[in-house]
Each structure stands twice: as C-alpha cells, then as structure tokens.
Design a protein that fits this description.
The protein has about 170 residues and is mainly beta. The chain contains no helices and 18 strands. Strands 1, 2, 4, 5, 7, 8, 10, 11, 13, 15 and 17 form an 11-stranded parallel beta sheet that branches. The mean pLDDT is about 95.
C-alpha cells in the first residue's frame, strides 16, 4: 500500500486502525488523526517524506496510538494547543525507527509512554518536542523507553522521566 505524495489518510472524528501485516505502508503524504484516533499496528515507512499528525477537531483531541506499530522516518506532530493530542503507546509497545532516515518529533509535540508500556527508539531521533515516560510509583509499575542499537537523540527537545501516579517517585 502506498500513500502518494499529495495523498491523505485521515481518522477524522473516529477510530481507524492501520495493519498491513508484514508489509510496510509507504507513506509519502500525510496520515492524520483529526479529532480521532489513528491506531498503528504495523510499519508505516515515512522515509519518502511522509508525515503523521494528531490534531484537535473542535473539542476532541487527535491521537496517534502505536499498538505494536512502527513509525520509520518522517515527521510526527501533535497539536501544541491541546495536551491531550499526543503520540501514545499501548501495552503492545511501539517503535520510532530512525535507522533509514530520522524520525522528527515536531516542536511542542508530545509523545507519552505510561506504566506498563514501552516505546523503543532506534537510529536517529530528532526530538524538538517532549517524550514523557511516566511510571506509577504507587503500584511499582514502570513506563519504558527502550533503546535499540545506537540511538542519536537530537533536536533540543525534552525527555521527561516521572511518576504519573503522584506518589513522588521516578519512572
């Protein structure tokens, strides 16, 4: 499956799951979660200039949800005006793969990993936004940021390790 340069695949106001099995979706255009949820369960190859974005649509936040999926290369952006608009991960984990071209987390964008979840980074990650890894100190659960091989983290963004439970411990 190929999303051409000016093509758009959008989850608008609902839920759309992308699962192409073992074959990567080649995204040269835009894949959007506009007031909806884009669930990624396979590999989306953005190295040809593709982008993934989550944005508000009225009162509903857009969410890109990695459910065992991989974003390879390209850019990821979330709505800076809405902290609920984010790149999230399920218990099946997810990967930002910058081995074939950098993955860029746009300025003011948010990627969040909570207790019981793992976001794996590989290759070159240009993070101008925030990657938050939130454990749960009350229950002793960790959120994990995995490193696959050599990872170059650049972009001046922030990696936050925190206790999401409010119990006062770190992730």
């Amino acid at each position: 499956l190929i999303n051409e340069t000016h093509g758009t695949i959008a989850a608008t106001g609902g839920v759309m799951a992308v699962d192409t099995g073992s074959v990567a979706l080649a995204n040269h255009g835009a894949m959007l979660a506009q007031g909806g949820t884009l669930i990624v369960q396979s590999t989306i190859d953005n190295t040809g200039g593709g982008s993934i974005a989550a944005s508000d649509q009225g009162i509903v936040a857009g969410v890109v949800l990695l459910d065992g999926g991989t974003l390879r290369g390209g850019s990821v952006a979330t709505d800076p005006a809405d902290p609920a608009s984010a790149l999230l991960v399920t218990a099946n984990g997810g990967t930002l793969d910058g081995t074939a071209g950098a993955v860029t987390l746009a300025a003011h964008s948010q990627a969040t990993v909570v207790a019981g979840q793992t976001l794996t980074l590989a290759g070159s990650i240009d993070a101008a936004g925030t990657i938050s890894v939130l454990g749960n100190g009350y229950y002793g659960e960790v959120g994990e940021l995995g490193i696959a091989g050599t990872v170059a983290l650049s972009g001046g963004g922030t990696v936050v390790l925190a206790d999401g439970s409010g119990a006062g411990t770190t992730a």
